[in-house]
Design a protein that fits this description.
CATH class: Mainly Beta
Distance between the termini: 30 Å
Strand order of the largest sheet: 18-22-21-20-19
Structural class: mainly beta
CATH architecture: 6 Propeller
CATH superfamily: TolB, C-terminal domain
Oligomer: single chain
Strand content: 35-45%
Helix content: under 10%
CATH topology: Neuraminidase
Largest sheet: 5 strands, mixed
Number of strands: 25
Shape: globular
Number of helices: 4
Order of helices and strands: HEEEEEEEHEEHEEEEEEEEEEEEEEEEH
Length: about 350
């Protein structure tokens, strides 16, 4: 979920009922948690994260060292899982990570890092998708996404799951979506922007609710909706009211506390834009912007942890210890609670 080495970005409505009861599953199993927090971990560098509402832990894509972090916000315990040939290999980044809340399994991507280093000019290299059972740390399947793309498109950086356990993977150079069948036995090109030109930056983030897949980040500057039951992905524009023009954007996220009615979009060096839909994302309303103004990192996404909604801050300006494209020497990483600011925008 990133733009380049140097520049990237990342309420409660009383009485609101949801058309998505799936989102309410396990909603109250984790203890309350809110307020800013920092993870003390050398070279963490979080690119993306997702919270597991069954085990009450935060999974983090640790970008530069291409490793997976598992953080317990209640005990502050942080575990790192590394992958032979990938972790601490500058050819790979680990960014996109998503929890299948129905199973507790997690999916994450080790992508060809040079694609983002060159902003799509060079998309060579291998992209791996992992599907893991975190309870016993078992890799259930591992898929080479480059075998499907044939090196014609890339920049794979975010994942989502449909209700049947199939995985959808977004690529950014250019906009593409791959569909990975449950179990990893079949991977197919589900959507791609034509004509295929990997020098064009496209969609960077996915969010899913029920059978609806939402995407944002292509050059049209629009929100898109897909039906994940379809054999091929066909994007439909989500009309948006309100005065907003997207800048270069990154990850998108549907916090569970709003029952699927609120979408957060990380915009590079701008902040987190807030949208609401009361008709299952057939239309949407722009509610406002939580501005970015923190020198400790640029916004690469958002994540709900317990009751709080947080921006993910990535310090892209740090000098790599082993040269450009490697982790810096930082050991403290802030997750900023923006819940109150989002609530104010939604109440307006």
């Amino acid at each position: 979920m990133r733009s380049s080495l140097a520049i990237v970005a990342a309420t409660s409505l009383a009485g609101l009922t949801s058309a998505y009861p799936y989102f309410q599953k396990n909603q109250a199993t984790c203890k309350p948690f809110s307020g800013n927090f920092s993870i003390q971990q050398y070279q963490l560098y979080p690119e993306n994260a997702d919270f597991d509402y069954t085990n009450c832990v935060l999974y983090i894509g640790q970008l530069w060292n291409a490793s997976l972090g598992i953080y317990d916000p209640y005990t502050e315990k942080h575990e790192i899982i590394e992958f032979p040939g990938i972790s601490h290999n500058s050819s790979f980044h680990l960014g996109g990570v998503g929890v299948d809340q129905a199973t507790g399994h997690i999916t994450f991507i080790a992508d060809a890092g040079n694609t983002f280093n060159t902003m799509g000019e060079d998309i060579s290299g291998t992209n791996w998708l992992f599907h893991m059972d975190p309870r016993n740390r078992t890799i259930l399947y591992k898929v080479n996404l480059t075998e499907t793309s044939q090196g014609l498109y890339g920049g794979f950086q975010d994942v989502e799951h449909d209700p049947d356990g199939n995985v959808f993977v977004v690529g950014t150079f250019p906009s593409s979506v791959l569909r990975v069948q449950k179990g990893g036995k079949d991977v197919r090109k589900w959507y791609i922007n034509e004509p295929v030109d990997h020098k064009i930056k496209g969609m960077g983030g996915l969010a899913a609710i029920g059978w609806t897949l939402i995407a944002q980040g292509d050059t049209s500057g629009k929100l898109w909706r897909f039906d994940m039951r379809a054999e091929k992905g066909t994007p439909t524009v989500i009309p948006v009211t309100g005065n907003h023009t997207f800048g270069a954007s990154d990850a998108i996220y549907l916090p569970r506390k709003y029952n699927g009615t609120v979408l957060l979009v990380a915009e590079d060096e701008i902040g987190t834009s807030v949208f609401r839909s009361m008709d299952e994302w057939k239309t949407a309303e722009f509610k406002g912007l939580v501005p970015w103004n923190d020198p400790r990192g640029l916004v690469t996404g958002a994540v709900q942890v317990g009751d709080g909604v947080y921006t993910i801050l990535e310090p892209f300006g740090d000098e790599g210890v082993k040269g450009p494209g490697t982790a810096g020497s930082r050991s403290e990483f802030l997750f900023r609670d923006i819940s109150k600011e989002v609530d104010v925008l939604l109440a307006a």
